[in-house]
Write a structure and sequence with these properties.
- 23% of the residues lie in helices and 42% in strands.
- The protein is an alpha+beta fold and 332 residues long.
């Protein structure tokens, strides 16, 4: 009997440990359940999903943003800016409201400022299963994008984030799809042309913004043309001992008989200025005045009198050029 009593006493001594460990396990389970509920209400909520997308766009992580948006960019022109990182500037991000729709989707309204400008976007999201079996997963039922209309003036090319984009035609607005909200700087940098940077903000998903890239001729372009013209006048024109130098902008008719070789010199070179033409890709050297000087001996046909022509000969220069997308310059 004493032996069996001792065994009962040893068995009963385990109950406090079982109770302690059981209570601890229950506490852990309750804590885990509370954590899951809290995370599903915040990080893994529809609003948390939208906020995660906004954070990815703002830090320029286009890969993550596109994955969250469920967008696979194509090689089409209108998708050219989808992979361009935003300049950021998103602040004061808040969830304004969340509304469940009849089809099971939810409309999440987020407010924020982009580079100081207030904005609001409605994101339509839907359940996409769970993560790890307990956390809610979401996806966009409508792409969180906007449109940006870009008009590259005087040339079909523009640059964004160091990438050159070539549109179908200059001076015509081209519509691009972009992640929203985002901010970009557009400019133009090529061999002969340039445009000052212009920053454009696409404030809200579903909205439309526009920007123009004001492309003009580089100062170095006019200088290069000036040097080429001056060299042509000096080497190809004044060296021709004829009254009408071939391929040159000046010359003089003489009705009497010429008795010596004409001698040309340049008194004033035309000062060239390059301006956009009426057709995209066409550039004009606007009419510029110059002065050549002619010295030549002649004899009058009427009375045989000999004399010397020693006079200035005014002339003008103007022509058009085209610049293709490979920076090939063609004179017309």
């Amino acid at each position: 009997m004493s032996s069996s009593v001792g065994e009962r006493r040893r068995a009963s001594s385990w109950w406090p440990f079982v109770a302690i460990w059981g209570g601890a396990a229950l506490f852990v389970l309750i804590g885990f359940a509370v954590t899951v509920v809290a995370l599903n209400a915040t990080v893994y909520s529809a609003g948390g999903f939208a906020r995660g997308y906004l954070d990815a766009v703002d830090r320029g992580d286009t890969a993550s943003a596109l994955t969250l948006a469920g967008i696979e960019p194509t090689d089409e022109l209108e998708d050219s800016l989808l992979t361009v990182p935003s300049l950021g500037g998103l602040a004061d991000v808040r969830e304004e409201s969340e509304l469940q729709l009849a089809d099971g989707t939810r409309t999440v309204t987020m407010t924020y400022t982009l580079d100081g400008t207030p904005g609001r976007s409605q994101f339509v999201v839907q359940r996409a299963g769970t993560r790890f079996g307990v956390f809610q997963a979401w996806s966009f039922a409508q792409a969180p994008t906007a449109t940006l209309d870009v008009t590259p003036q005087n040339d079909p090319r523009f640059t964004v984030d160091g990438r050159q984009v070539t549109t179908e035609s200059g001076d015509v607005a081209t519509r691009f799809e972009v992640l929203a909200p985002s901010r970009f700087t557009l400019s133009h940098e090529s061999a002969y042309l340039e445009a000052p940077p212009v920053t454009v903000a696409v404030i809200s998903a579903g909205g439309t913004s526009s920007a123009s890239v004001a492309t003009v001729a580089r100062a170095s372009f006019s200088q290069t043309l000036q040097e080429q013209l001056d060299a042509m006048l000096d080497t190809d024109c004044v060296t021709q001992a004829v009254l009408l130098p071939a391929g040159c902008p000046f010359g003089r008719q003489v009705d009497d008989r010429v008795t010596g070789d004409p001698a040309w010199s340049i008194v004033a070179y035309p000062a060239l200025s390059v301006q956009p033409g009426t057709v995209s890709g066409q550039w004009l050297v606007t009419e510029a005045a110059g002065t050549a000087h002619l010295v030549v001996d002649a004899q009058a046909l009427f009375d045989g009198r000999r004399y010397t022509i020693d006079e200035d000969v005014p002339f003008t220069v103007s022509y058009t050029m085209t610049i293709d997308t490979g920076d090939l310059l063609t004179f017309q």
